[in-house]
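ok so dumb question maybe but i'm new to this and my supervisor (M.) told me to 'just get the structure for stearoyl-CoA 9-desaturase' and walked off. so i did the thing. is this what she meant?? sequence i used:
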Amino acid sequence: MTEAEELKHRSDVRPQATTEDVFDHTYKEKEGLKPPRVIVWKNVILMILLHVGAVYGIFLIPSASSLTLLWSVFCFLVSALGITAGAHRLWSHRSYKASLPLRIFLCVANSMAFQNDIFEWARDHRVHHKYSETDADPHNAVRGFFFAHIGWLLVRKHPDVIEKGRNLELKDLLADKVVMFQRKYYKPSVLLMCFFIPMFVPWYLWGESLWVAYFLPALLRYTLVLNATWLVNSAAHMWGNRPYDKSINPRENKFVTFSAIGEGYHNYHHTFPYDYATSEFGCKLNITTCFIDFMCFLGLAKDPKKVSRELILARIQRTGDSNHRSG
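this is what came out, is it supposed to look like this??
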Protein backbone atom coordinates (compact mmCIF):
# COMPACT_ATOMS: atom_id res chain seq x y z
CA MET A 1 0.00 0.00 0.00
CA THR A 2 1.41 3.39 -1.01
CA GLU A 3 1.61 6.42 1.27
CA ALA A 4 -1.18 8.08 -0.72
CA GLU A 5 -3.40 5.03 -0.14
CA GLU A 6 -2.46 5.13 3.53
CA LEU A 7 -3.65 8.73 3.82
CA LYS A 8 -6.88 7.88 1.98
CA HIS A 9 -7.46 4.98 4.35
CA ARG A 10 -7.05 7.29 7.34
CA SER A 11 -9.52 9.81 5.93
CA ASP A 12 -12.06 7.06 5.22
CA VAL A 13 -12.17 5.85 8.82
CA ARG A 14 -14.90 8.07 10.25
CA PRO A 15 -17.16 6.55 13.10
CA GLN A 16 -20.41 7.51 14.95
CA ALA A 17 -21.82 7.21 18.45
CA THR A 18 -25.52 6.59 18.46
CA THR A 19 -26.21 3.98 21.13
CA GLU A 20 -25.18 3.27 24.68
CA ASP A 21 -22.58 0.66 25.58
CA VAL A 22 -23.28 -2.43 27.66
CA PHE A 23 -21.75 -0.50 30.55
CA ASP A 24 -23.68 2.73 31.05
CA HIS A 25 -21.12 5.45 30.45
CA THR A 26 -22.72 7.55 27.73
CA TYR A 27 -22.90 11.24 28.55
CA LYS A 28 -26.36 12.74 28.54
CA GLU A 29 -26.16 16.49 28.42
CA LYS A 30 -27.92 18.22 31.29
CA GLU A 31 -27.87 21.86 32.25
CA GLY A 32 -25.09 22.64 34.69
CA LEU A 33 -23.54 19.14 34.52
CA LYS A 34 -19.79 18.83 34.07
CA PRO A 35 -19.53 15.75 31.82
CA PRO A 36 -15.93 14.56 32.17
CA ARG A 37 -16.24 13.79 35.92
CA VAL A 38 -19.68 12.20 36.22
CA ILE A 39 -19.08 8.88 37.96
CA VAL A 40 -21.32 5.94 37.05
CA TRP A 41 -21.53 4.19 40.41
CA LYS A 42 -23.17 1.08 39.00
CA ASN A 43 -20.07 0.48 36.90
CA VAL A 44 -17.75 1.20 39.83
CA ILE A 45 -19.52 -1.37 42.00
CA LEU A 46 -19.60 -3.99 39.23
CA MET A 47 -15.88 -3.55 38.50
CA ILE A 48 -14.97 -3.79 42.19
CA LEU A 49 -17.01 -6.98 42.60
CA LEU A 50 -15.54 -8.42 39.40
CA HIS A 51 -11.94 -7.85 40.49
CA VAL A 52 -12.56 -9.07 44.04
CA GLY A 53 -14.03 -12.25 42.55
CA ALA A 54 -11.02 -12.61 40.25
CA VAL A 55 -8.57 -12.25 43.15
CA TYR A 56 -10.52 -14.91 45.02
CA GLY A 57 -10.29 -17.10 41.92
CA ILE A 58 -6.50 -16.92 42.07
CA PHE A 59 -6.58 -18.64 45.47
CA LEU A 60 -8.69 -21.44 44.00
CA ILE A 61 -6.06 -22.34 41.37
CA PRO A 62 -4.35 -25.03 43.54
CA SER A 63 -7.69 -26.79 44.01
CA ALA A 64 -8.51 -26.89 40.29
CA SER A 65 -7.77 -29.90 38.10
CA SER A 66 -5.17 -29.63 35.35
CA LEU A 67 -7.93 -29.98 32.75
CA THR A 68 -9.74 -26.99 34.26
CA LEU A 69 -6.58 -24.92 34.10
CA LEU A 70 -6.01 -25.90 30.46
CA TRP A 71 -9.65 -25.11 29.69
CA SER A 72 -9.21 -21.68 31.32
CA VAL A 73 -6.20 -20.94 29.10
CA PHE A 74 -8.15 -22.11 26.05
CA CYS A 75 -11.09 -19.84 26.94
CA PHE A 76 -8.65 -16.95 27.45
CA LEU A 77 -7.19 -17.43 23.96
CA VAL A 78 -10.58 -17.83 22.26
CA SER A 79 -12.09 -14.77 23.93
CA ALA A 80 -8.94 -12.72 23.28
CA LEU A 81 -9.09 -13.64 19.58
CA GLY A 82 -12.69 -12.41 19.56
CA ILE A 83 -11.25 -8.97 20.32
CA THR A 84 -7.89 -8.96 18.55
CA ALA A 85 -8.64 -10.90 15.35
CA GLY A 86 -12.34 -10.06 15.39
CA ALA A 87 -13.52 -6.70 16.73
CA HIS A 88 -10.12 -5.08 16.20
CA ARG A 89 -8.35 -6.26 13.07
CA LEU A 90 -11.36 -7.51 11.10
CA TRP A 91 -14.29 -5.27 11.98
CA SER A 92 -12.60 -2.05 13.15
CA HIS A 93 -9.87 -1.86 10.52
CA ARG A 94 -10.99 -4.25 7.77
CA SER A 95 -7.38 -5.36 7.52
CA TYR A 96 -8.35 -8.75 6.03
CA LYS A 97 -11.44 -10.51 4.72
CA ALA A 98 -13.09 -13.38 6.59
CA SER A 99 -15.48 -16.06 5.37
CA LEU A 100 -18.88 -16.50 6.99
CA PRO A 101 -17.78 -19.48 9.18
CA LEU A 102 -14.80 -17.50 10.47
CA ARG A 103 -16.92 -14.41 11.10
CA ILE A 104 -19.39 -16.53 13.08
CA PHE A 105 -16.57 -18.04 15.15
CA LEU A 106 -15.07 -14.60 15.86
CA CYS A 107 -18.51 -13.29 16.76
CA VAL A 108 -19.02 -16.12 19.28
CA ALA A 109 -15.51 -15.55 20.64
CA ASN A 110 -16.27 -11.85 20.95
CA SER A 111 -19.34 -12.61 23.07
CA MET A 112 -17.11 -14.75 25.28
CA ALA A 113 -14.88 -11.68 25.78
CA PHE A 114 -17.85 -9.49 26.89
CA GLN A 115 -16.41 -6.06 25.99
CA ASN A 116 -19.48 -4.56 24.31
CA ASP A 117 -20.85 -5.91 21.07
CA ILE A 118 -18.81 -5.77 17.85
CA PHE A 119 -20.63 -2.73 16.48
CA GLU A 120 -20.02 -0.62 19.58
CA TRP A 121 -16.45 -1.86 20.04
CA ALA A 122 -15.52 -1.07 16.42
CA ARG A 123 -17.31 2.28 16.55
CA ASP A 124 -15.43 3.40 19.65
CA HIS A 125 -12.14 2.09 18.29
CA ARG A 126 -12.49 4.08 15.09
CA VAL A 127 -13.17 7.18 17.18
CA HIS A 128 -10.05 6.36 19.21
CA HIS A 129 -7.86 6.21 16.10
CA LYS A 130 -9.24 9.31 14.44
CA TYR A 131 -9.08 11.46 17.59
CA SER A 132 -6.35 9.72 19.58
CA GLU A 133 -5.25 11.50 22.77
CA THR A 134 -7.95 14.18 22.61
CA ASP A 135 -11.20 14.61 24.53
CA ALA A 136 -12.91 12.79 21.66
CA ASP A 137 -10.83 9.68 22.39
CA PRO A 138 -12.96 7.37 24.59
CA HIS A 139 -9.90 6.29 26.63
CA ASN A 140 -7.67 9.35 26.26
CA ALA A 141 -4.27 8.37 27.73
CA VAL A 142 -3.39 12.03 28.36
CA ARG A 143 -5.80 11.80 31.30
CA GLY A 144 -3.51 9.27 32.98
CA PHE A 145 -2.97 5.53 33.27
CA PHE A 146 -6.01 4.82 35.45
CA PHE A 147 -8.41 6.65 33.15
CA ALA A 148 -7.02 5.01 29.99
CA HIS A 149 -7.02 1.58 31.61
CA ILE A 150 -10.38 1.37 33.39
CA GLY A 151 -11.48 4.84 34.49
CA TRP A 152 -13.10 5.65 31.15
CA LEU A 153 -15.64 2.89 31.88
CA LEU A 154 -16.45 4.37 35.28
CA VAL A 155 -17.47 7.85 34.13
CA ARG A 156 -19.82 9.16 31.48
CA LYS A 157 -18.28 9.79 28.09
CA HIS A 158 -16.90 13.21 27.36
CA PRO A 159 -19.37 14.97 25.03
CA ASP A 160 -16.63 15.30 22.37
CA VAL A 161 -16.60 11.50 22.01
CA ILE A 162 -20.21 11.59 20.89
CA GLU A 163 -20.03 14.86 18.96
CA LYS A 164 -17.03 13.79 16.85
CA GLY A 165 -18.25 10.24 16.58
CA ARG A 166 -21.50 11.18 14.88
CA ASN A 167 -19.61 11.88 11.65
CA LEU A 168 -18.19 8.40 11.30
CA GLU A 169 -19.23 6.10 8.47
CA LEU A 170 -20.35 2.70 9.76
CA LYS A 171 -22.26 1.32 6.79
CA ASP A 172 -19.92 -1.67 6.59
CA LEU A 173 -20.85 -2.72 10.13
CA LEU A 174 -24.55 -2.08 9.64
CA ALA A 175 -24.49 -4.21 6.48
CA ASP A 176 -22.80 -7.17 8.23
CA LYS A 177 -25.53 -9.62 9.24
CA VAL A 178 -23.25 -11.39 11.73
CA VAL A 179 -22.52 -8.10 13.51
CA MET A 180 -26.18 -7.11 13.59
CA PHE A 181 -27.31 -10.55 14.77
CA GLN A 182 -24.87 -10.42 17.66
CA ARG A 183 -25.98 -6.88 18.49
CA LYS A 184 -29.61 -7.99 18.67
CA TYR A 185 -28.92 -10.97 20.93
CA TYR A 186 -25.83 -9.69 22.71
CA LYS A 187 -26.89 -10.05 26.35
CA PRO A 188 -28.04 -13.69 26.11
CA SER A 189 -24.95 -14.50 24.02
CA VAL A 190 -22.74 -13.08 26.78
CA LEU A 191 -24.50 -15.07 29.50
CA LEU A 192 -24.05 -18.22 27.43
CA MET A 193 -20.51 -17.76 26.12
CA CYS A 194 -18.77 -15.68 28.78
CA PHE A 195 -20.15 -17.40 31.86
CA PHE A 196 -22.28 -20.52 31.30
CA ILE A 197 -20.18 -22.46 28.75
CA PRO A 198 -16.81 -21.83 30.49
CA MET A 199 -18.39 -22.98 33.78
CA PHE A 200 -20.53 -25.85 32.46
CA VAL A 201 -17.89 -27.68 30.40
CA PRO A 202 -15.45 -28.56 33.22
CA TRP A 203 -18.32 -29.42 35.59
CA TYR A 204 -20.09 -31.70 33.09
CA LEU A 205 -17.12 -33.30 31.31
CA TRP A 206 -14.63 -33.99 34.08
CA GLY A 207 -16.45 -33.36 37.34
CA GLU A 208 -14.96 -30.05 38.40
CA SER A 209 -16.92 -28.30 41.15
CA LEU A 210 -19.27 -25.57 39.94
CA TRP A 211 -17.64 -23.18 42.44
CA VAL A 212 -14.15 -23.58 40.94
CA ALA A 213 -15.53 -23.74 37.41
CA TYR A 214 -17.27 -20.40 37.89
CA PHE A 215 -14.40 -18.52 39.49
CA LEU A 216 -11.56 -19.78 37.22
CA PRO A 217 -12.51 -20.33 33.54
CA ALA A 218 -15.41 -17.88 33.83
CA LEU A 219 -14.70 -14.98 36.21
CA LEU A 220 -10.88 -14.95 36.52
CA ARG A 221 -10.40 -15.63 32.81
CA TYR A 222 -12.84 -12.87 31.88
CA THR A 223 -11.08 -10.36 34.15
CA LEU A 224 -7.66 -11.24 32.73
CA VAL A 225 -8.86 -10.74 29.15
CA LEU A 226 -10.37 -7.39 30.11
CA ASN A 227 -7.14 -6.16 31.67
CA ALA A 228 -5.01 -7.47 28.81
CA THR A 229 -7.15 -5.44 26.40
CA TRP A 230 -7.09 -2.37 28.65
CA LEU A 231 -3.28 -2.47 28.76
CA VAL A 232 -3.29 -1.66 25.04
CA ASN A 233 -5.19 1.55 25.86
CA SER A 234 -3.05 2.46 28.86
CA ALA A 235 0.47 0.97 29.05
CA ALA A 236 0.96 0.82 25.26
CA HIS A 237 0.11 4.53 25.05
CA MET A 238 2.53 5.52 27.82
CA TRP A 239 5.61 3.27 28.02
CA GLY A 240 7.90 2.02 25.26
CA ASN A 241 9.74 3.30 22.22
CA ARG A 242 8.35 5.02 19.13
CA PRO A 243 10.42 3.87 16.13
CA TYR A 244 7.83 4.69 13.44
CA ASP A 245 6.31 7.99 14.50
CA LYS A 246 7.75 9.99 17.40
CA SER A 247 4.97 12.58 17.17
CA ILE A 248 2.25 10.25 18.54
CA ASN A 249 1.83 8.71 21.99
CA PRO A 250 1.35 4.98 21.18
CA ARG A 251 4.46 2.89 21.93
CA GLU A 252 6.00 -0.49 21.24
CA ASN A 253 5.50 -2.41 24.49
CA LYS A 254 6.68 -6.02 24.69
CA PHE A 255 4.76 -6.84 27.88
CA VAL A 256 1.51 -5.72 26.27
CA THR A 257 2.41 -7.66 23.13
CA PHE A 258 2.71 -10.82 25.21
CA SER A 259 -0.36 -10.30 27.41
CA ALA A 260 -2.65 -9.09 24.61
CA ILE A 261 -1.51 -11.82 22.14
CA GLY A 262 0.14 -9.46 19.68
CA GLU A 263 -1.42 -6.03 20.21
CA GLY A 264 1.54 -4.28 21.86
CA TYR A 265 3.29 -3.11 18.68
CA HIS A 266 1.24 0.02 19.13
CA ASN A 267 3.39 2.72 17.58
CA TYR A 268 3.44 0.66 14.41
CA HIS A 269 -0.29 0.03 14.59
CA HIS A 270 -1.21 3.71 14.94
CA THR A 271 1.20 4.56 12.13
CA PHE A 272 -0.13 1.83 9.83
CA PRO A 273 -3.58 0.91 11.23
CA TYR A 274 -4.61 -1.07 8.14
CA ASP A 275 -1.82 -3.69 8.48
CA TYR A 276 -3.43 -7.00 9.46
CA ALA A 277 -0.37 -8.03 11.51
CA THR A 278 -0.19 -4.75 13.53
CA SER A 279 3.58 -5.26 13.27
CA GLU A 280 6.38 -5.51 10.75
CA PHE A 281 7.66 -8.68 12.43
CA GLY A 282 5.02 -11.14 11.26
CA CYS A 283 4.18 -13.86 13.79
CA LYS A 284 6.88 -12.89 16.30
CA LEU A 285 5.16 -12.75 19.72
CA ASN A 286 1.95 -12.31 17.77
CA ILE A 287 -0.54 -15.13 18.29
CA THR A 288 -3.28 -13.17 16.55
CA THR A 289 -1.22 -12.83 13.38
CA CYS A 290 -0.45 -16.56 13.51
CA PHE A 291 -4.17 -17.25 13.80
CA ILE A 292 -5.05 -15.05 10.81
CA ASP A 293 -2.25 -16.60 8.74
CA PHE A 294 -3.57 -20.07 9.59
CA MET A 295 -7.09 -19.03 8.61
CA CYS A 296 -5.72 -17.80 5.28
CA PHE A 297 -3.96 -21.15 4.83
CA LEU A 298 -7.26 -22.94 5.44
CA GLY A 299 -9.04 -20.66 2.98
CA LEU A 300 -11.26 -19.14 5.68
CA ALA A 301 -9.62 -15.69 5.36
CA LYS A 302 -8.01 -13.82 2.49
CA ASP A 303 -6.54 -10.52 1.31
CA PRO A 304 -4.57 -9.59 4.44
CA LYS A 305 -3.29 -6.02 4.04
CA LYS A 306 0.43 -5.54 4.62
CA VAL A 307 2.64 -2.47 4.52
CA SER A 308 5.58 -2.71 2.14
CA ARG A 309 9.08 -2.68 3.61
CA GLU A 310 9.90 0.35 1.44
CA LEU A 311 7.05 2.36 2.97
CA ILE A 312 8.05 1.31 6.48
CA LEU A 313 11.64 2.44 5.92
CA ALA A 314 10.51 5.72 4.39
CA ARG A 315 8.22 6.40 7.34
CA ILE A 316 10.97 5.60 9.85
CA GLN A 317 13.28 8.09 8.15
CA ARG A 318 10.58 10.77 7.97
CA THR A 319 8.89 10.59 11.37
CA GLY A 320 10.53 7.85 13.43
CA ASP A 321 13.82 6.70 14.85
CA SER A 322 16.40 6.35 12.10
CA ASN A 323 18.42 4.02 14.36
CA HIS A 324 15.59 1.47 14.44
CA ARG A 325 16.45 -1.85 12.84
CA SER A 326 13.47 -2.64 10.66
CA GLY A 327 12.45 -6.25 10.27
